[in-house]
Write a structure and sequence with these properties.
Largest sheet: 8 strands, mixed
Number of strands: 22
Number of helices: 18
Low-confidence stretches: 1-5
Shape: globular
């Protein structure tokens, strides 16, 4: 665990910073991520924390590399320890050259000890600034110039900047250089969370209102939307519970406002009747469903992919829906935009199915010029007494009007209704309205198939494929690249792009499904459509796959 100076330039590094809740670990990790970003690296940050306001053990893993990445490794090059748990709990992540920097008043370890309490006392700084001090020590140990760290602090630490810099400088001067992380030629790019990417995508798609009751892991979307609401002329509401959330969103949709809501599995349970109301009334709404480990409360701050079938079947009765599952920040941005536009074009409820790993992970976001496919606007009707909200059409989509429209009654209805929206129990009309909804589903499926709903990467000519969905795309993409495998990711899961997926799998003789649930929910969905992979790799302990772990498990599956 150290030592000897390694004056070699490292083109990939992993840094773990740990402490208790209240030590500012997430913020510290973000400063480290932006430090590498400033030096031209592409970064990914994973944040792990228990459901506690204070205490417990929090840690962030920042990984920096020359190329874009979306997963962490099993070992780290630096450990920044603000408490003893950081050393004790992560011993398995240490390799022969790992450098440990630690608060020597609290931690027993071998490495570079820093007397944080003494420095903070002398600088009259609060305890939370201990993370600034240890980041300064890390920068010196990693051979990073002070001016680079100073620039990053100036951009990322707006509060008490002068004092934070003084404390960081003390840490910098205390440590000694033991390796050198070189600067790359690439320009810095934005570093954003999956939640922020979802929010930006929704806004780009024309969002008018965001409604949510805070629930991990989508809570930060509400905070982000509130911060940008004035700039983007956005309505942001925080009602008293999740039932109020979706009913308010449907009211906004009826009035012509494009609305999205955010929640997790427990909140979506409460929303399902309103979700079904969206299906019957044909008032569109988009639900950001952030998965976490369940059932029930489960582990509120950990990850899972166990709500796929819930999203596919939530709500009573039969009605078409859109379910998209982006896997990284760029996909989250693109498909949040598309989900909102498609939901409104076809007047169906939509779900952006994400998880804690994506929502609270941070990514280099370099596709600022990404071209999002054009989605035509919903058909509009002319106002007048003859307007029928549910007018039959060839593709099942009725022309829209919103109140107030002069001389027009716009009636939406959660009961079975006729074309004018009047309640009926007539069998023929009931059958026609059911067929109308199915036509909408078919039209939606046809358009989805043209929007690249399945992403293919890795060695596209390989006869062995990894099939994954959601956030594991980052680790699958990396492992597939190193092992010469094809990786296939269905981003749209309803309407299921069967033909596109079959085409993506053409020429493969062996398929392995990788997902983070116990029952193999994607594998079951594939089997329903006649696609039966040969092997399954699953993780279901609330944590995401690390690169080396997945590679080892794939080698076992192929043996």
């Amino acid at each position: 665990m150290l030592f000897g100076v390694r004056l070699t330039f490292m083109e990939e590094s992993s840094i773990l910073i740990g402490g208790k809740a209240g030590d500012g670990i997430n913020s510290a990790g973000m400063v480290v991520a932006h430090l590498f970003n400033r030096m031209g690296y592409r970064v990914y940050m994973y944040f792990d924390y228990p459901s506690l306001i204070k205490g417990g053990h929090n840690f962030a893993i920042v990984r920096a590399a020359r190329e874009e990445i979306g997963a962490h490794r099993s070992q780290v090059d630096f450990i920044l320890a603000l408490n003893q748990d950081t050393v004790d709990f992560h011993g398995g992540m240490v390799h022969s050259s790992t450098v440990v920097l630690y608060d020597r008043s609290k931690v027993r370890a071998e490495g570079i000890g820093i007397d944080l309490p003494q420095i903070l006392k002398e600088e009259e700084a609060p305890p939370v600034m201990g993370n600034s001090c240890i980041i300064g020590a890390f920068a010196k140990a990693a051979g990073i110039e002070w001016k680079v760290l100073e620039e990053v602090f100036a951009r990322q630490v707006p509060k008490a900047l002068s004092l934070n810099l003084k404390v960081a400088r003390r840490g910098y001067e205390t440590a000694s250089e033991c390796c050198r992380i070189g600067t790359l030629g690439s320009s810095p790019v934005p570093v954003i969370s999956g939640n922020e990417a979802i929010g930006l995508g929704l806004i780009h798609g024309g969002l008018d209102a965001y409604v949510a009751y805070p629930m991990t892991p989508t809570s930060n979307i509400l905070h982000f939307m509130a911060e940008v609401a004035e700039t983007h002329d956005l309505l942001v509401f925080h009602p008293e519970n999740e039932i109020a959330v979706i009913m308010m969103a449907l009211g906004l949709g009826y009035a012509g406002k494009k609305a999205a809501v955010g929640t997790s599995g427990g909140g979506f349970c409460l929303m399902t009747e309103g979700f079904s109301l969206s299906g019957m009334s044909e008032v569109p709404v988009v639900v950001v469903l952030g998965q976490r480990a369940g059932p029930s409360t489960g582990m509120p701050t950990y990850t899972a992919q166990s709500d796929l079938h819930f999203a596919l079947h939530a709500g009573q009765g039969e009605f078409p829906r859109l379910v998209v599952a982006p896997g990284d920040a760029e996909q989250a941005y693109t498909w949040s935009d598309l989900a909102l536009r498609l939901s409104w074009k076809y007047q169906v409820p939509g779900v952006i199915l994400c998880d804690k790993t994506l929502c609270e992970g941070f990514y280099s976001f370099s596709r600022l010029d990404a071209v999002i496919p054009r989605i035509d606007l919903p058909t509009k009707a002319s106002p007048g007494p003859g307007y029928s909200r549910y007018l039959f059409s060839e593709n099942g989509v009725s022309p829209l009007l919103f109140p107030p429209s002069p001389g027009t009654v716009i009636k939406v209805n959660g009961y079975t209704h006729d074309q004018a929206g009047i309640t009926t129990e007539n069998s023929e009309i009931a059958a026609l309205m059911s067929e109308k909804r199915q036509k909408k589903g078919a039209a939606l499926a046809s358009e989805v198939s043209s929007l690249n709903p399945v992403v293919v990467g890795g060695d596209t000519g390989s006869d062995m494929a990894l099939i994954c969905w959601g956030s594991p795309i980052g680790v699958c993409r990396e492992v597939a690249g190193s092992m010469g495998l094809r990786v296939v990711q269905p981003v749209v899961l309803s309407p299921f792009p069967k033909l596109v997926l079959q085409d993506a799998l053409q020429g493969t003789e062996r398929q392995i499904v990788v997902e983070e649930n116990a029952e193999g929910q994607l594998a079951m969905l594939l089997a329903r459509h006649g696609i039966r992979p040969h092997s399954h790799i699953r993780r279901y302990d609330g944590r995401p796959f690390a690169v080396e772990e997945l590679e080892a498990r794939i080698r076992e599956a192929l043996a």
